Amino acid sequence: MSALRHYQSGALAAKDFLCRTHIDARAGRPFVAMRLRSKIDGITHALPREFRAGFIDAVYLFVAAALRGKAPDLLQWDVLADLERPSYRTRDHHHPERRTCGVFCGLPM
């Protein structure tokens, strides 16, 4: 599988993770923020770093939009299209086809 496919798969997995988390929250199940890292690690630990980068980038997009008061409807959100928007790509260091720093910044090798 190509780096881009892994990246896109990670982004789609993040969307699914966010949907499940949202459903749990609406059902009154508590979300413990300190467990976020362990949940992400549990989902991404055995997968390529490009998958993890896509996952984290998608979560970042959602959180950034939510903080601006414009959280996307998770059922309708086209996460892959949003990741390809020029406004996101100019800040993106992790996308496998646009590495500006030569490595996946902050990710373990």
Give an overview of the whole structure.
This protein is mainly alpha-helical and 109 residues long. It has one domain. 57% of the residues lie in helices and 0% in strands. It is built from five helices and no strands. Helix 1 packs across helix 3. The longest helix has 24 residues. It is globular and about 40 Å long. The relative contact order is 0.19. The C terminus is likely disordered.
Please give a quick description of this structure.
By secondary structure, the protein is an all-alpha fold. Helix content is 57%, strand content 0%.
Distance between the termini: 18 Å
The radius of gyration computed from the alpha-carbon positions, rounded to a whole number of angstroms, is 14 Å
Report low-confidence residues grouped into runs of 5 or more.
99-109
Instruction: Compute the average pLDDT.
Output: 81
- Beta-strand content: under 5%
Largest beta-sheet details? none
* Share of residues in helices: 55-70%
Structural class: mainly alpha
Per DSSP, the total helix count is: 5
Shape: globular
In N-to-C order, the SSE pattern is HHHHH
Number of domains: 1
- Number of E-state strands: 0
